[in-house]
Batch of 2 targets.
Target 1
Amino acid sequence: MKVIGKTTTSNFTFESLEKVRFGEYVIAKNTDDEDVLAIVKNVVAENEKFICEAKVIGVLNNNKISVNRSPIKPNGEVKFCDDGILNNIFYVKNGLNIGHLLTRKNVRVYLDTNKLISRHFAVLSITGGGKSNTVAVLCRELGKKNASLIILDPHGEYSTLYHEDLEGKVKVIHPTVNPSILSPEELSDLIGLEKDDFDKRVYLEYAYYTIKKEFPNIGGMEFIEKLENLLYEWSKSAEVGWEIKYYNPLKRKYDRRKAGEKDFIAIISLYDIIGKFMIDFALHIGDKDMIEEFEIGKINVVNLSGLEVHQMITLVSFIAKHILSKRVLYLKSLKDINSPNERIKTTALSNLKTIEEHYKIVIKPLLLIVEEAHIFIPINEQTSASLWLGKIAREGRKFGVGLGLVSQRPKQLHPDVLSQTNTKIILRIVEPEDQKYIQRASEELGEDLAKDLASLGIGEAIIVGTAISLPSIVKIDKFDGIYGGKDINIVGEWMGLDDW
Ligand SMILES: Nc1ncnc2c1ncn2[C@@H]1O[C@H](COP(=O)(O)OP(=O)(O)OP(=O)(O)O)[C@@H](O)[C@H]1O
């Protein structure tokens, strides 16, 4: 194969008598006689020849790639890059072995585990493109490294996650929340109060602090029942225009408030909402703190299926907030135990004891994978979940809390958070708007790769970012275990009716 026509430092054309495919890796010499690795970006068949346009990747030395500063030697020889060189380029020690180069079945592609997690990542594709399979393969690889994972799973796709390498490592968590450890704000969100429903939110807060004051040790459903009873009493007082007595935590004393018609309406509708919440959410109200259930070194799958969106958002916000804050507190306490200040040291020791007893998962770095991330980090509003997931995206790297966003609606994802995901695993994206949106969120995804997105097959991904040696098209392994992602065989189930 031979270079033809003019060349530059970044592109050249060559002709070949043997077949060359898009995405193929070749080596040519530059004018400093260095080996330059390039990737075929376009092939034109002309009579018996193939005219190929190649894009320079960089100068090859000892399997490392450096910037190419000299034009490709005109009329120089071009040869296929052999698998051995590519395997060395794409191998990463302690990396995640997720698949092979699309054009090279024998070249395995590894992702750098530390860079993938510490700098966050996103898995994006149209529905059916292979996101869940990709996440399952990542779990398989991370499980081998005893990773601490939390998967927030709105469709319950990972509750059936099984692989022989993950024996005993998958823990499915039925999301329960103890309302008495939520903030009044979180509890208002959880029962479905609108952000601007101030009247109800104020009375919920009054009732919340009054019950906390009068029954400091109750939790779970008992706490909600006490709230409901108090609201009922208040509604009776408000109905006849009496005063309402409530505990004010700021003044640390009881206050009184004259209740009128407007208050009565707010209180009685709040009472009804709480009653409905107790019925709809009963299975998710507990007196334990869900965070205590997460186990270190395991894949903790929080099955959110069956919940309403506002309930999912509140639970995800609660998990993200408490995971980050407990991890930060743990690391701070590890430093504070060496403080000369006795009070700081004692507090730190007590915090470490509590965390090591109840919240082991934050003792080591951990990864939070958010499926259907566009629900929780929407472009058009600041939800309580996006507040805390955004904090993890911005600050998590310092504390060893990684974020993995999975979405089939990239352009509905908040751009600030998507752009914080340094590595992008992008499966088939057909919508030009989605392609442009992803491109704006990741500088490595050049025009040439972006236009390939629509032609990717199932499980074929363009991977860009710091966790992969080179931006590449990778065929992700088909997960050789079980997860909930396989398509339902609709006609097979219908035809099976004959046997009913
Ligand atoms: N890398 C792959 N190799 C072979 N088949 C794959 C691969 N990835 C996914 N598939 C198959 O494609 C189908 C859809 O996969 P998957 O559920 O991962 O897609 P998805 O993008 O998560 O879809 P959804 O958005 O509906 O969850 C499944 O039947 C799966 O077995």
Note: The chain has 15 helices and 20 strands.
Target 2
Amino acid sequence: MAYRFLASWVLTASKRLTRRFLFLFTLSLSCTYLCYCLIFCSDSIMQNPSYDGYRCILIQNVRGKKLLQKSPSCNAAVDHKETQINIHSPAASVIRLVPPEDSWTERNFSYTPEDVSGQETSNNTGTPRFGSKKLPHTIIVGVKKGGTRAVLEFIRVHPDVRAMGTEPHFFDKNYDRGLDWYRSLMPRTLENQITMEKTPSYFVTKETPRRIFSMCKEIKLIIVVRNPVTRAISDYTQTLSKKPDIPTFQELAFKNWTLGLVDTSWNAIRIGMYALHLESWLQYFPISQIHFVSGEKLITDPAGEMGRIQDFLGIKRIITEKHFYFNKTKGFPCLKKSDVNSLPRCLGKSKGRTHVQIDQEVIDQLRDFYRPYNIKFYETVGQDFHWE
Ligand SMILES: Nc1ncnc2c1ncn2[C@@H]1O[C@H](COP(=O)(O)OS(=O)(=O)O)[C@@H](OP(=O)(O)O)[C@H]1O
């Protein structure tokens, strides 16, 4: 009797235990499944690889042939030694980027906050976020007031070029932020597209050629030059527009006017001594890697100058005379409207200012001063810019 009771009790207890075990097992299975779903399912919703794939297919359909080309990016040939030290420097919160005062007019063309932070500047196409950010393949390194904005805005019409709209000043003012920071400012590019930026002050900054070389020795460089006397007046006109109380051009340009002693420490004068600055670049780069644009021809024959730039970059001559018209009010060439709904585009008010009137005598003195530098420059470059 006692044995039977004990046996039935043990049986009930073991049944209960089994049920409990089964319940707990099911519960833990459910929990595991729930956790799995939470972690992996949500992740796959956010970064759906098939979505990316779909986007890539779209691009390939449009430009499939081109995507097979080798990337023109500099990233592969980088010697990061110098900048890697600072690669973890703080990101772009207080970047010193030149405000886009020279944006286009005649079209509702404005820079987005992203552009100002330099992150996702779109080119003419307004391409969405395809591709990846790469270090520049080409840099417009100078010269200030040479016509650098015009070159950048004209070349970015090309579908194979994507350019940063603002001036990053990486190699002169922001170098300690590191290459990762610099790269993060670039627009996204597809495999076949060229990444470009322009910072005209690079041309006269001593450390810049070495720093650019250490980033990428195969980089292509563009220098837009202009008659150094006109350039100096343009530079001065710009400063005057911001600080109306500065001394006269003549007072700043000459240490001693009677003796004809030019003040080469004044930046507006110093920048125009092109031959001098070019020497620093030639210590690192062969002349074949540098393309010189005539600032004067850029105004009289923009298509011709753009044709030569496209050849230098190794891209198809897509930008031709069909893209330009001469705007009589502005007094400069502007881009024609790209489609029926858009407006033509001229550079902003800060480009093509009316220059301050300077005495002919002052101009002649400066012309004499620059002559030897100009001759040396023509010889080195192998091109006569006719600044006499
Ligand atoms: N298409 C077109 N439209 C307007 N302006 C043109 C154009 N092509 C060249 N230029 C000349 O560009 C000069 C300004 O040069 P930058 O863009 O290099 O200036 S800056 O260094 O970025 O401030 C600017 O100088 P200034 O005329 O002295 O204002 C222009 O002469």
Note: The chain has two domains: 52-98, 119-381.
